[in-house]
Design brief:
Radius of gyration: 23 Å
Number of helices: 19
Largest sheet: 10 strands, mixed
Structural class: alpha/beta
Strand content: 5-15%
Distance between the termini: 28 Å
Oligomer: single chain
Length: about 525
């Protein structure tokens, strides 16, 4: 493996050979990677609808860092400079999650989220990670149906699931060839360090959500001396990369479902789903069984029981929204369906947090399946810990459907990674004492609490801000009322971590609306 030649250097901490810790003007042209640090981007106004101060540029990075003189790819980068240069601390880079989330617009989105004391300390930096959006994008030519990976296990349909997984892998390999091996988290972390060097920064500060927490942790592992003020919000467990992170959606949902049955029983007068948790549970599973026999027609859209299980899995982490959704399904099953999609209660977000879709010519250049293609490219390319035996997935799906009835078979069923090629290099083992901050809601559907605790354990120098009773995927939103947000603001503005882990209560009246997109 060509990139694997760098692994001993990285493990030993000799990271200066990747991108010299020099200002761009000082980078030696004789160093293999120095020419990337020495780039001088042609900054320009990002979009006519945005302020002139919001600037964009493209830079080049090696496709394969083991061969820096070989093929290059494009990275789209953005910046919004601080308006108070005298208070400037450095550059704050963002990632919205994914893999496959576009981050180029995040500086414009975050400028009104960050309080003044934070905003004036940083140039805000966004980028579309390699393979994503307005950077050189990957595509597998996937149809809309092929992009749906939520497949319930059934003995009679398992052969079709295997065919789907193989088709996705084959399409991705055919469209991308050897490029596929280099769209990985480790290479995106290296790209971040190129961005740091191009900006002339000695260190990088960072705010990453969801998948962005893993990306940030990998950067801190590979470049500990370049890691400044890092906030990892709603964390991926580095020990579960990546199949285990999909499976934790199942194991993490069962406690949320139990909590929902208790809450809904206490609100029987409103929802009429049962006076006890057992009755509420029976109401739900009776609906699932009914829909599996005859799909429930709600406003012209028909739902099977499997649709209900998959659609409501993340919603159970917010009991009120789940109770509303099940109530609507119950009405629809009785022939009194509404004209709206009952699996999307009023106000529920359908898009990942902090992700905005490009418009106009930018959108036209991005393949329709880019988000899904990038998702699989990273999940399958990061690690070899995916079985290549379809029967292993069958056994696991049968086992986990019994263990975790709501989603276990979906989470353990076969995925395209079963037919992927070998990774370009070993997965990153995250375990260091870099001092940074993790933030976690108790009731997070996409990175459940067990995942956030796993990241905190791996980062032995971290401080965790835990929102007990907090709901939703993504904690920090710049709310001055919120204990967790104030802790993040204090750290970003001063660089001082709390002396110990912090437990917060969610702010009164701040109810989370669940994201229904199955992404990190």
């Amino acid at each position: 493996m060509r990139i694997g030649r760098l692994a001993p250097l990285l493990a030993a901490g000799v990271t200066a050979t990747l991108v010299p810790a020099l200002a761009p003007a000082q980078a030696s042209a004789t160093e293999p990677l120095g020419r990337f640090a020495a780039q001088k981007p042609a900054w320009h106004r990002c979009d006519a609808s945005q302020p002139a101060a919001f600037q964009c540029a493209t830079i080049k990075v090696p496709l394969d860092y083991g061969r820096p003189g070989g093929k290059t790819i494009k990275l789209a980068v953005s910046r919004l400079k601080t308006s108070v240069p005298g208070k400037r601390h450095g550059a704050l880079l963002f990632n919205p999650g994914g893999p496959g989330g576009e981050g180029l617009d995040m500086p414009a989105e975050m400028k009104d989220v960050l309080p003044k004391k934070v905003r004036e300390r940083y140039d805000l930096i966004g980028f579309d990670p390699r393979g994503v959006g307005r950077s050189t994008p990957v595509t597998c030519g996937l149809t809309e149906a092929e992009q749906n990976f939520q497949h319930p296990y059934k003995a009679e349909t398992f052969s079709r699931d295997v065919k789907w997984a193989r088709t996705v892998a084959d399409k991705c390999r055919t469209r991308n060839g050897d490029t596929l091996r280099y769209i990985t988290t480790r290479n995106t972390a290296r790209d971040m360090d190129v961005i740091r060097a191009v900006l002339g920064e000695k260190k990088l500060s960072y705010l990453g959500y969801s998948y962005g927490t893993y990306l940030g942790a990998v950067y801190a592992q590979m470049f500990p001396q370049r890691t400044d003020r890092f906030v990892l919000d709603s964390s991926v467990d580095p020990a579960r990369i990546w199949r285990g992170m999909i499976q934790v959606w199942a194991s993490g949902t069962e406690p949320a479902f139990t909590r929902w049955t208790k809450w809904t029983a206490q609100h029987h007068r409103t929802y009429k789903l049962g006076t006890t948790p057992a009755q509420v549970r029976k109401t739900f599973w009776d609906l699932v069984a009914r829909a599996n026999r005859t799909p429930i027609d709600d406003g012209g859209q028909k739902f099977t029981g499997d649709d209900i299980r998959a659609g409501l899995r993340p919603v159970f982490f917010s009991p009120k929204y789940a109770a509303e959704a099940v109530t609507e399904l119950k009405k629809a099953a009785a022939g009194h369906g509404s004209s709206r999609h009952s699996l999307l209660p009023p106000g529920v977000r359908q898009a990942p947090r902090w992700t905005s879709a490009p418009t106009g010519s930018a959108a036209a250049r991005i393949p329709a399946d880019n988000s899904s293609a990038a998702f699989w490219t990273v999940l399958c390319g990061d690690t070899a810990a995916w079985s290549h035996d379809p029967e292993q997935y069958r056994r696991d799906a049968v086992r986990d459907k019994a263990r975790y009835p709501l989603y276990g078979d979906f989470a353990s069923n076969i995925m395209p990674c079963a037919f992927w090629g070998a990774p370009a290099e070993p997965v990153t083992e995250v375990g260091n004492k870099v001092r940074l901050m993790t933030v976690q809601n108790q009731w997070d559907s996409q990175t459940p609490l067990a995942s956030g605790l796993g990241m905190h354990r791996a980062l032995k120098g971290s401080r965790m801000v835990y929102v007990k009773g907090g709901e939703g995927h993504g904690v920090y939103s710049g709310d001055p009322r919120a204990c967790a947000d104030r802790a993040v603001d204090a750290y970003l503005s001063t660089g001082k971590l709390p002396a110990r882990d912090v437990t917060c209560a969610p702010p009164a009246g701040r109810g989370a609306k669940p994201s229904l997109v199955p992404r990190f």
